[in-house]
Write a structure and sequence with these properties.
Structural class: mainly beta
Strand content: 35-45%
Distance between the termini: 125 Å
Helix content: under 10%
Number of strands: 38
CATH superfamily of one domain: TolB, C-terminal domain
Shape: elongated
Strand order of the largest sheet: 9-10-11-12
CATH architecture of one domain: 6 Propeller
């Protein structure tokens, strides 16, 4: 046995080559260690090809852009957004490039549909899909962030520059016999009939039912929807003492105020909602929903007399941000006083009118128009000029029939000035500023006045002159 001179492996004596390293052992041929030929041009060529390949991989586009796929800086932003969402736990969907988005519902919620599988555990949701988009040239899988925002299809129904800045008028909201059942903006009337909210144009066209509310199945029931205001795109109202708003097309009904103490009166000015309850007058910022109390002396509440009878005490009579004024009834010693407070400084009294200024008779109704306060006692109607720092009162009308007044309904500029009131048994009385009067025997009640017309219910909604002449039926 001998050893291989190259690898030192043990081999047979007569072997002509090593079975381990395959080196030749023929003594006639000298053995040389294996050597690599230095072909320098081949190495240079290989290095050049490798460099070219690396540059091609780096610069060549990964795939051609497809329809709906972000390009350029938008693509980078999308990739960055996806990576950020993944690191923070935000749900990312592997979905089709083309997705289907559901339209918004009346409640304002928006849903999106796609081919996904969803698992929810402790509020964490992950959605995955292996869907692929196939084109004529390639098949790609695109990862995008699912959008859940649908376009808003709402269209305002008022002309530019004709939106209200006040939701209604004081004399249409604060008279106890007219609990804000009709509101007007531009060419549209919005009205509540029983437990349904409707709209119709002032010429009687375009009648629509926006919302039908559920009517409580109890003998007394709950206060029907009332205190209707409209400003811009929104209608505001109270339902069973809670404050709601809804778009003027009936969509996106939402509750703004839901407390144990019911809101009995509501008046919306610009971005503020003022409401009265048994604790006073409060202001809600409609942007932040923050509520603050502006007065604790003027209060409104609901008194339930029996299972079939209830009485609403509405003591807020007038409110103006422009004039920084808040007017209402305050009960003292079993008598009501009419008081004006500062709106910006809570409970700061500016003046008061007592029963002594009206012959000792109780004061029980008032309205404000043209900087004049009209109020009534048992048989008389008085006026007071609000432009004076301390209003002086004067007797305006005496009931010719000597029948007690029931309601002071409205004031209109019609025919030089018209005051409208109701008596217990006779009907509606008209008092013109020239001293003439007229009696209208009717069983219907006017719910809304603007300077040109009176609107009332008599089976349907009607429009007439303020003296109720020339009636026109608006709804069918």
């Amino acid at each position: 046995m001998k050893s291989c001179p190259v690898c030192r492996a043990t081999i047979e004596d007569n072997a002509r080559f090593c079975h381990t390293c395959m080196s030749s052992l023929d003594e006639k041929q000298a053995w040389h260690a294996p050597r690599r030929h230095k072909r320098w041009w081949q190495g240079l060529l290989a290095a050049f090809c490798a460099l070219a390949l690396a540059l091609g991989v780096a610069l060549w586009p990964r795939s051609l852009p497809t329809v709906g796929e972000p390009q350029g800086s938008d693509a980078s932003a999308t990739e960055s957004s996806s990576e950020t969402s993944s690191s923070t736990g935000t749900t990312t969907l592997d979905a089709d490039v083309s997705t289907t988005t559901a339209p918004s519902s009346a409640s304002g919620t928006v849903s999106a549909t796609s081919s996904t599988s969803t698992n929810a555990t402790s509020g964490n949701t992950s959605s995955t899909s292996n869907a692929k988009t196939t084109t004529t040239t390639t098949t790609t899988t695109s990862t995008t962030k699912q959008s859940t925002t649908a376009p808003d299809s709402f269209v305002p129904d008022y002309r530019s520059g004709h939106a209200n800045t006040e939701g209604n008028t004081a004399q249409n909201l604060f008279i106890k016999s007219k609990p804000g059942l009709i509101a007007k903006q531009d060419q549209w009337l919005y009205f509540i009939n029983s437990y349904a909210l409707h709209k119709v144009r002032v010429d009687g066209s375009g009648e629509q039912t926006l919302i039908t509310f559920e009517k409580p199945d109890t003998p007394l029931g709950h206060p029907a929807p009332t205190n209707l205001n409209v400003i811009g795109d929104w209608l505001y109202l109270t339902i069973d003492g809670d404050i709601y708003r809804v778009r003027t097309d009936g969509s996106r009904l939402e509750c703004l105020y839901d407390q144990n103490v019911p809101a009995m009166q509501l008046y919306v000015i610009k971005n503020n909602a003022y409401f009265a309850d048994e604790n006073g007058i409060h202001r809600m910022d409609l942007s932040t929903k923050k509520i603050e109390t502006v007065n604790t002396e003027i209060k409104s509440w609901l008194e339930v007399k029996s299972t079939r009878y209830q009485n609403v005490y509405k003591n807020l009579c007038y409110l103006s941000e422009e004039k920084n004024a808040l007017i209402g009834f305050v009960k003292t010693n079993d008598r009501k006083e009419i008081r004006q407070y500062s709106l910006s400084s809570p409970d700061t009294l500016q003046w008061s009118i007592t029963s002594e200024s009206s012959g000792g008779s109780k004061i029980f109704e008032c309205l404000i128009a043209d900087d004049t306060l009209f109020y009534m006692s048992q048989y008389n109607i008085y006026s007071a000029n609000l432009l004076k720092s301390v209003p002086s009162t004067s007797l305006l009308f005496n009931s010719q029939s000597q029948v007690s007044f029931l309601d002071l309904l409205a004031y209109s500029h019609y025919k030089g000035g018209l005051l409208i009131a109701r008596n217990y048994s006779l009907g509606t009385e008209l008092y013109y500023r020239d001293g003439t009067t007229a009696l209208i025997e009717n069983s219907y009640k006017p719910y809304f006045f603007d300077d040109g017309y009176a609107y009332y219910y008599y089976n349907q909604l009607w429009r007439a002159n303020p003296d109720f002449s020339d009636p026109v039926k608006l709804t069918q």
